[in-house]
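cron nightly-structures :: item 1 of 1
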Amino acid sequence: MRFGTFDLSVYNHGFFRLDGGAMFGTVPKAIWSKLAPPDEDNRILLAARSLVIRAGERVFMIDAGMGDRWTEKMRRIYDIRPGVDNEPGLDAGGVTDVILTHLHFDHARGLFRARTEPEGEADLRYPRARVYVQAANYENAKKPNARERASYLAEDVELLGRARLVLTSGSQEVFPGIWVHGANGHTRGHQWVEVRADGRSLAFPSDMVPTSRHLPLPYLMGYDVCAETLLEEKDALLSRAVGERWTLVFGHDPDVPAGRITRDEKGHYALEEAVAL
């Protein structure tokens, strides 16, 4: 998609599965299972999708996927698999900037790749890239609470010391037309990304709205640390998206990469139409 002076596309690093009940929180299985059918282990299929923004010689990638540094046991638990073959490739060496919405493993672990020699080492997958993360999230990841300890992997946080780290704070323009906005409902120091051009906006809400099935306000994840805060943040974002005709890119939706939002006959936020990037 041409968006002002930007060229936008999406890239799916791969698929994985998480427990459907955890992904939909208090929504009953009788409801969410019709939207996202689970497998025999109650897991639903999810994508690890990036938004890619090309701006002249700069190439921004939002989030970095799951990566390949997994044991066979963990691959089975999360059913980690490659992305689809029909999406355009991504030249890792050409990526100049990586914006991490937060440091949970399904968004940040792909920043590094496994190396066979010497065994156990890890390389930067995007060696040229500056890596942007909210300072609050970086500190949160260093000392995660008991609930999030399994999502913030200590090895990954330590490896960030090798990257060209840029710490952001709140709402900040990191490049002309590319903004990050801090939010704390999903996890402390989460940031969502807004691209502005010609009076229009496109947003990557990340885990505030992980899939198009999570558009209704009460459809929150069990992983969210503060549901009340997230409800307010999500409502503010989606209200603007409807009123200003934004396009949203869904980081975890397995089959709807992006779309425009409306309110249905009951006043709930809903997908109006899918948008191809």
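cron nightly-structures :: done
The chain is about 20% helix and 35% strand.
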